[in-house]
Amino acid sequence: MVVRAGGFVALQFDETGVQSCMLAHEPYALALGYTRTMVGFLLFQPNPRRISIVGLGGGSLAKYCYRYVPDAVITAVEINPDVLALRSLFQIPADDERFAVICADGAHYVDSSDHRPDVLLVDGFNAEGVPPQLCSTAFYTACRRQLPDNGLLVANLISSDSGFRRCVCSIRAVFDDAVVVVPAEDSPENVIVFAWKAPAASLPLDESLALARVLETMHPLNLRETAIRIEYGKRIDWEERTACPRT
Hints:
Elements: E1 2-5, E2 8-12, E3 18-23, H1 33-38, E4 50-54, H2 60-68, E5 73-78, H3 81-84, E6 99-103, H4 106-112, E7 119-122, H5 137-146, E8 152-158, H6 164-174, E9 179-183, E10 190-196, H7 205-215, H8 223-235, H9 238-242
Parallel strand pairs: 4-5, 4-7, 5-6, 7-8
Antiparallel strand pairs: 1-2, 2-3, 8-10, 9-10
Helix pairs in contact: 5-6, 7-8
Active site: 123
Family: Belongs to the spermidine/spermine synthase family.
Protein name: Spermidine synthase
């Protein structure tokens, strides 16, 4: 369902579950804090050439990347044709030489595509939470396989979701603990997981803050706050919280 109120246009699963939100007067802005945290991928990949997005919704991440990461080729995958039918309402750009929206199962797309993204954003939900096919060891293994050696996976999870522990444990197992779990901006339940192939891809805080200052001249975001959140995430004992079994 689409709700218009207070200058916002929101896509909701029901009366309480917000799937996506757009500022009516600034459609390319990232209205929800978790999306701003997800774009923290810039602190690891400042100039990605290819970005894949699983889960379109109202297109917040896709639109932001299209406008503010102009050298990237972007593919967004959405399983629900009813969501795709709202594309013009949410002012999602038309397909062109560097932007494409595909109606497909995200798990199947990742497993079969040759897109080879530098950054893979996973933000796929239904009314019950993260679908099982986007929260399995097989899915995350396919994600890792598709990424180049310096590639980055960024996944949006909900800490109250019954599958949260399983998702975090699966990502840790597949990415050999090269993982940071970060509380999202302005959202106590959203948790953003950054995972990469390179074992030392995360910068020290002082270097990350310096990079954030440079990036903020090109991006309308407080990336320094995101850098601090990522550093905080490194210090949280998520292994204890999720009780992931050791292999």
